[in-house]
Specification:
The protein has a single domain, classed as Up-down Bundle (Rhopdopsin 7-helix transmembrane proteins), CATH 1.20.1070.10. It is rod-shaped. It has 293 residues and is mainly alpha-helical. Helix 2 runs parallel beside helix 4 and helix 5 packs antiparallel against helix 6. The chain is 65% helix and 0% strand.
């Protein structure tokens, strides 16, 4: 879902993507690893990878809380990237724990019943300890961040649309952190209780149901209730075409027709040429002389 977001390259959504990848890979490895118990070497590999991805899911929830704490409480620059530190904390810290455990106690990974940490040994604390520490630290960070969110009273006059959008996104992220921390803590609480009493059907059903509901809850918190993600599902608006300038056609000038004479008026006779007028004058002069004689 986050891949379809138009601005998925932002730091906040990259954290969401890494958390989703860690959670998804842990579930896939856990399901496939249940069928690898016959081959102990493959089972140990699946157990080590499952340990890594389950721890990474907890640490990426911690990264979510730290990112929001840096922005809302410590007022760090939002445009300054902290992704290298977050990548080290989300993947590097769990990898360091798993490498140390696998190097010292590789025989305690995998058993005849499941490709997970062997029951009844101290290696399970390499998962319980960091997970409980992350949940407690997340609880403290969420309380501090939530108090800072409530104390912030925006000024309606000076607040811009960008500030309103940032505040809304911070609330969506804070709500997602509370929900994801709660569901992870509740799921593994049932898991730890199931280790103590493996024959309890109630803890088995509770662990399976809460584990299966994680994907739905994460989708509701980070996708369905997020207005930005919902808007990214809609097709982008078509660009508005600029109106063409109106061109007024030039007036057509019709050629003037020669004026026709009116019916009532007779056409005027044309003037005689000059040589005929001279002849008439000469003839008049001769006639006058003859008459005088």
């Amino acid at each position: 879902m986050f891949m379809t977001f138009r601005d998925w390259s932002s730091e906040r959504y990259l954290i969401h993507i890494n958390f989703t990848l860690a959670q998804l890979s842990s579930q896939i490895l856990f399901l496939i690893g249940e069928h690898q118990v016959r081959n102990q070497t493959t089972c140990k590999v699946f157990a080590i990878c499952t340990h890594l991805t389950f721890l990474s899911a907890f640490f990426w929830v911690l990264v979510e809380a730290l990112d929001l704490h840096f922005k809302m409480v410590l007022k760090f620059d939002r445009n300054r990237s902290k992704l290298p530190f977050f990548m080290f904390l989300g993947w590097g810290a769990p990898a360091a724990v798993v490498i140390i455990c696998a190097g010292n106690n590789s025989d305690q990974y995998g058993s005849e019943n499941s490709c997970w940490v062997e029951d009844g040994n101290n290696l399970i604390w390499a998962f319980i300890g960091p997970s409980v520490a992350v949940v407690l630290l997340n609880t403290v960070l969420v309380i501090i961040t939530f108090r800072a969110y409530l104390r912030h009273t925006p000024d309606a006059k000076s607040e811009t649309e960008e500030d309103i959008q940032i505040r809304e996104n911070d609330w969506i992220t804070l709500r997602g952190i509370i929900g994801s921390t709660s569901i992870l803590a509740m799921t593994w609480l049932y898991g730890f209780l199931l280790v103590g009493s493996p024959s309890s059907a109630m803890f088995q059903y509770a662990f399976v149901l809460s584990n299966g509901a994680q994907g739905v809850i994460f989708f509701i918190l980070f996708c369905f209730l997020n207005t930005e993600v919902r808007q990214s599902w809609k097709p982008p608006p078509e660009p508005k075409q600029k109106p063409m300038p109106k061109v007024t056609p030039a007036p057509v000038v019709e050629p003037k027709k020669p004026s026709e004479p009116k019916k009532d008026e007779e056409p005027k006779p044309a003037d005689p040429p000059k040589h005929t007028r001279r002849r008439k004058q000469r003839s008049r002069l001769l006639c006058g002389k003859l008459l005088t004689i």
